[in-house]
Amino acid sequence: MSDKLYTPSNPNAQQGVRNVLKYLSDITYEKIITGQHTQTMAQEELHLIEKVTGKQPALLGFELLSYSPNINYSDTDDECMTEVTENYGTLKRVWEWAEKKGLITMCWHWFSPLYGRSKSFFSENTDFDASKAVIDSTPENKALLSDMDTMAGILR
Fold this sequence. Notes:
The protein is mainly alpha-helical and 156 residues long.
């Protein structure tokens, strides 16, 4: 494969980034990568895959919703609270997977910072106008940037 296929867009990318890109380039057209999203800290999906196949996937997905700064604990249902509590401490699992040299993907069900109730990451549970979030200085823009800064701080 051409070096161009695994040259990071950021010239200051860490060596780990370069290693992953090279690995992906090296296996192109030769192998596939399997992956699985884990819904909770217990990682039932991962354990079932290992039990059935004797192997673990190369790529593991993690949920960061419990790190959202806008969980409305006073206006949420039991189902939502179960999802939140079952994902407490997810980043510990992320770093453990990284130590095993596993590939990582993360999703963040972002609780609406304004005008939301219960699972406010669903549009029907919020009046948050995402189109206003990209307009400088709107309340939506300020809330979005604040939450992204919070998450960036957590991930550092």
